[in-house]
Design a protein that fits this description.
The complex is a heterodimer of chains A (86) and B (630).
Chain A lengths: L3 E3 L7 E8 L8 H8 L6 E6 L8 E5 L2 E5 L1 H4 L2 E9 L1
Antiparallel strand pairs in A: 1-6, 2-3, 2-6, 3-4, 4-5
Chain B lengths: L13 E6 L5 H9 L3 E5 L6 E8 L5 E6 L11 H11 L10 E7 L3 H13 L4 E6 L1 H6 L6 H8 L3 E3 L9 H8 L21 H17 L9 H10 L4 H20 L1 H21 L4 H18 L2 H17 L2 H13 L8 H6 L4 H6 L7 H10 L8 H12 L4 E2 L3 E2 H27 L1 H4 L6 E3 L7 H35 L16 H13 L6 H7 L8 H9 L5 H15 L2 H13 L4 H11 L3 H28 L1
Parallel strand pairs in B: 1-4, 1-5, 5-6, 6-7
Antiparallel strand pairs in B: 2-3, 3-4, 8-9
Classes of the chains: A mainly beta (86), B alpha/beta (630).
Chain lengths: 86, 630
């Protein structure tokens, strides 16, 4: 079992599974909104690109949809790295 | 210029279409209802309400309601709140739907099913329409309709909204009168009030179970979209492509619109002359010719540009590029405390601030929405161009700088640029000095897969936006134009008066009073008077100047006003007036739209005050610096 880390830190193209979505101090509503968009435990997720300067916002793919997330938003999502690349 | 009447069909059963954004719900709605559509607003809120009619094979008229797209029944934006309220039967003046058709993106069952479960919990009979089923098949997603129907306990049909007859399965289901006798799933009613995060998680688990049973539980790549994104979202090529695209849109907006704009202008001028010849010379003729015909003409003349811009925006929206443009610009907008979502309203404002302000509805964050409305009037709208053209051709020589660039073109560029910089500056100040401005703005924006735009949907969208613009704006502008005509015409000049009649009117008196205030920025009393009717629409100031200088006909204004002011005004005065036009709220219709869209008086008053202050400051600096240097 891999240790968990935040979505904002995992390398591009690395397959991962969401473990939990935690509350964020700067954006109180963040966790709820993320869950409603489908950022929920056990979902597969992968970071597609972080090409903008400062890698903010970054592009992630979850299930069959692509989202642009702020770094601070991605930091709320705890993931466990899976095996293999996307 | 007529107010669109709202037709309710209170007799027919009401079917509501519910779904996530980008699930093809509106395309399916267009497919089902064809041209039987009415666009209006929901009572009390500025959210677009689309209702259509579908005649079944048994000649029963069904009312079809296209609810705003939503991800959940826990609303984030105004649009989403309306959807929740209608489904719960809480919406003001709105009947509770008899059946909810949950339009589901077949390529994204995972997320759509959570909404289906939430709608089912509202206690409404539901049907699931598996939309984009062709795309799902292409991507290797096979959904067993019967198994899904059994799992959910509701009818499931496949649809392809973009294909002719792609809605036949759904039509067939709606043809059956038994569908209206559907009962809500009784167990679903038990926890209808529980809408908390816990419910989201419970739904999620149920969806996971269903997906596992149907063998749909894995991450599916979208290779076509990713290949395009590799280029269009590239850190270097992406922004370059965006700038090129915007440049092309602007080119098209100004060059393609020229012919229809000239046509509209000529038609309204000819009509004015024609009517003027038919009627006796009295105040009624002046009202009809100068107030109604010229007032309407001055608004409708911008319709071609607005339509071209809207057509491009619709194509970009349908193709899936628009959210990507917002993504590319997010950093830039973020630096002044806005998100990429403000980009579309600001882009529209280059044609006219009014559709731009209406477009802010898509911004979920209230603060971002208000700031966007606040700065939208600073984008150089096309109504400023006639004023710029007059002043520049009269005062700026047709020379080239360093033999390559036209000086007149450079001045136009500086004026556009000053507006953008001003807007960014205002947004930055608000970010820096307000508590809400320092918070991190949420983004969480979905980038839908690229799709080829469907011509029919673009035409329908264009038609609806035109109707909205004309009905929303037409009334306001007419009233303001007529009010200002009244100010400029009464009281009439005393017998034997030497000056132009407008000098003796209320507008003239206001102008003479204003001249005292405006003297420090170099404006003479003629300019001050022309600015008053110019509040109806910016370019009206030109014909008013013509009136003040006692030029009688339109063609005379076009030919001799330039040389006349070049002779009478100093260069610093002209530059100061240009600076004034960059910032001043010389358009009461915009202010009225802000009042309407924000639902408060606070915002329009703030806009009026700060824009006048900014304009005065800019003109003062321009005038003083120019006087000192030239």
């Amino acid at each position: 079992m891999h240790p968990t880390q935040s979505l904002s830190q995992i390398p591009i193209g690395q397959l991962a599974r969401i473990v939990s979505v935690k509350q964020c101090a700067q954006m109180p509503d963040c966790a709820r909104q993320l869950s409603e968009l489908g950022f929920l435990p056990d979902e597969h997720i992968v970071v597609l690109r972080r090409t903008m300067p400062g890698s903010d916002p970054l592009l992630v793919r979850i299930g069959v949809s692509t989202f642009a997330l702020r770094l601070a938003e991605a930091a709320c999502v705890e993931v466990a790295l899976g095996d293999g690349a996307y | 210029m007529r107010e669109e009447k709202i037709h309710f069909h209170p007799s027919g059963p009401l079917i509501a279409l519910v779904g996530n954004p980008n699930c093809g719900k509106t395309a399916l709605f267009n497919r089902l209802t064809g041209s039987f559509q009415k666009v209006a607003n929901y009572a009390g809120v500025t959210v677009e309400r689309k209702e259509g009619r579908l005649i079944t094979s048994l000649h029963i008229a069904l009312r079809i309601l296209d609810l705003p797209g939503t991800y959940s029944l826990y609303p984030r934006s105004l649009d989403e709140r309306v959807t929740c309220d209608v489904l719960a039967g809480r919406a003001q003046g709105e009947k509770r739907p008899d059946v909810a058709v949950c339009v589901v993106d077949a390529t994204n069952l995972r997320r759509s099913l959570r909404l289906v479960l939430a709608v089912q919990r509202q206690g409404l009979p539901c049907i699931v329409a598996l939309n984009m089923s062709d795309e799902a098949r292409l991507r290797g997603i096979h959904i067993d309709e019967q198994a899904l129907s059994a799992e959910l306990g509701m009818p499931v049909v496949s649809t392809v909204a973009t294909a002719t007859d792609g809605d036949s399965a759904l039509r067939k289901l709606l043809d059956d009168p038994a569908i209206l006798q559907l009962r809500a799933n009784p167990e679903s009613l038990s926890n209808a009030t529980d809408n908390s995060g816990q419910q989201t998680h419970a739904d999620h688990e149920r969806v996971q179970v269903i997906l596992r049973k149907l063998n749909l539980d894995h991450l599916v790549p979208d290779l076509k979209t990713e290949r395009l994104d590799r280029f269009l979202l590239h850190p270097v090529f992406g922004p370059i492509m965006l700038v090129v695209l915007l440049f092309m849109i602007f080119q098209a907006m100004f060059s393609w619109a020229q012919v229809p704009m000239d046509f509209i202008k000529d038609t309204s001028d000819n009509l004015a002359v024609l009517v003027a010849d038919l009627l006796p010379d009295n105040w009624l003729r002046s009202l009809i010719v100068d107030g109604v015909i010229k007032g309407a003409g001055s608004v409708v003349v911008f319709l071609p540009q607005i339509l071209i811009l809207f057509a491009f925006i619709l194509i970009l929206e349908e193709s899936g590029y628009l959210p990507r443009a917002a993504y590319l610009l997010d950093r830039l907008m973020g630096s002044v405390g806005l998100s990429g979502r403000s980009f579309i309203p600001l882009l529209s404002s280059f044609a006219c601030a009014i559709p731009g302000i209406i477009a802010t509805r898509t911004i979920p964050n209230q603060r971002d929405r208000w700031v966007t409305m606040l700065i939208a009037p600073l984008m150089t709208c096309s109504a400023r161009l006639p004023v710029y053209a007059l002043l520049i051709s009269a005062f700026i020589p047709q020379t080239r700088i360093w033999g390559v660039v036209e000086l007149q073109g450079v001045i136009i560029f500086i004026l556009y640029f000053a507006g953008i910089v001003g807007a960014m500056g205002v947004a930055w100040v608000l970010k820096r000095f307000t508590a809400s401005g320092r918070q991190i703005r949420p983004l969480m924006m979905e980038l839908p897969p690229y799709r080829l735009p469907v011509f029919r949907n673009i035409l329908i969208g264009l038609w609806q936006r035109t109707q909205l613009f004309m009905s929303r704006v037409g009334g306001v502008i007419m009233v303001l134009t007529l009010a200002l005509w009244f100010l400029a015409s009464f009281p009439s000049a005393p017998a034997g008066a030497s000056g132009a009649p407008i000098e003796y009117s209320i507008a003239g008196m206001i102008g003479h009073a204003l001249a005292v205030v405006l003297a420090p920025i170099g404006f003479n009393w003629q300019i001050a008077i022309a600015l008053v009717p110019g509040l109806a629409a910016r370019e009206v100031a030109i014909s008013s100047l013509g009136t003040v200088y006692a030029l009688s006909t339109t063609s005379e204004v076009a030919q001799s006003l330039g040389p006349l002011i070049a002779e009478n005004w100093s260069l610093p005065t002209a530059l100061s007036l240009l600076a004034w036009y960059v910032f001043a709220p010389q358009c009461l219709s915009t202010i009225a739209t802000i009042r309407r869209e924000s639902g408060s008086w606070q915002l329009p008053v703030v806009v009026l005050v700060y824009l006048f202050a900014l304009a005065y400051l800019a003109s003062f600096i321009t005038f003083r610096v120019a006087t000192a240097l030239l």
